[in-house]
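Researcher: Going back to the complex we discussed earlier. I've cleaned up the inputs and rechecked each line, so this should be the final set. Can you rerun the prediction on the complete assembly and write out the structure?
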Amino acid sequence: MENTPEHRSGYVAIIGKPNAGKSTLMNRMLGNKVSITTHKPQTTRHQILGIHSEEDLQIIFLDTPGVIDPSYELQKAMMKTVDRARRDADIILLIVDVTDYNVPGRIFKMFSSMKNKEIFLIINKIDKTSDQQCQAVAKEIQGKFDFDDTLFVSALNGEGLQQLMDTIKENITSGPPFYPKDMLSEQPVRFFVAEMIREQLFLLYHQEIPYSSTIDIVQYDERDDLDYISADIIVNRESQKGILIGKGGKAIKKLGKSAREVIQAFVDKKVYLDLHVKVREKWRENPSHVRHYGY
Ligand SMILES: Nc1nc2c(ncn2[C@@H]2O[C@H](COP(=O)(O)OP(=O)(O)OP(=O)(O)O)[C@@H](O)[C@H]2O)c(=O)[nH]1
Ligand SMILES: [Mg+2]
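Model: Rerun complete. Updated structure for the full complex:
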C-alpha cells in the first residue's frame, strides 16, 4: 500500500517594529495582497491572517501591528493583538528593517518568556544597503538574543523569500489543515473593504489624521449591477472633520475615488462608495468605542 505523507501545519507570527515591512513580507509570501501596506508606521491595527496551502501542508501567517509603547486605548488593543499572535504561533519571525534596526526591549522581553517556539531573525530591506551592513546589523541583534536562525530578505523585491519559505516548511510539524485549502484569509469582504479605505486614508492624509481615524462599514449591499457600500469615517475631534472633507469636499472626493478603484479591483465588480465623516470625540482613548470599532 502506498504511504501518504503526513499532513503538516503551523502558525507563523510576523512581529517587529512599525514600518519594518511585516505586511509587505506576508503578502509577498502569499503571492496575494491580504494586508494593507503604506510608508507610514502603524498601518496594521489587527491580526491579519494569511493562509498558504499545499496538498500536505498548511502555513497560517499572522501579520500583526508594529510593536510600540502604547499611549492610548487603540494602541493598547493593538499590542494585545501582538501578544495573542505570539502566543498562538509555533514559529515567530522577528522582522527588522536593516536601516532602522534598533529592536525595542519590549520585544526581547516578550521572547524571553516563550518556550517551544522557533524564533527567526529576519533582516529585511536588504535592497537598501550593503551586505556588510546587513551582516553587522544581524550580528548586533544576535548578541541580544539566541535566535534559532537568521535570514536576509527583501520583502519588496522578493530576494531571500524562497529560502525563508523553505526554512519555515522545514520547521512545520505534523498537524491537520485548520482552514479549507482554497481559503486565503478569514475576515469577511467588508473587513477588507474597510482596510482598503483606511489604506487610502493613510496615503492621502498627513500628520495625525490617519492615526485619529477608523472606518465603519454601515451598509454593504450586493446588488445585481454593483455593490453599494456606505462607510463612516470616524474621527477623534471636531476639527479633524473639516480637514478630512477638505475645501468644497475636494479631499474626501479624492479619497472616495481612489478607494473605490481599489475596492472595484478587489470585488471585481462596479462599486458605489458612499463616505460620511462622523466625529466620535476621543474614540481612540475610549475602551468601549475602540472595541465597538472592531479592535
Ligand atoms: N526598500 C524596501 N522597502 C520595503 C521592503 N519591505 C517593505 N518596504 C516598505 O516599507 C514600508 C512599510 O511596509 P509595511 O509592510 O507596511 O510595514 P509594516 O511592518 O507592516 O508596518 P506597520 O503595519 O505599520 O507595523 C512600505 O513603504 C514598504 O513598501 C523592502 O524589502 N525594501
Ligand atoms: Mg503592517
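Model: Worth noting: The longest strand covers residues 8-16.
Researcher: Good, that matches what I expected from the previous run.
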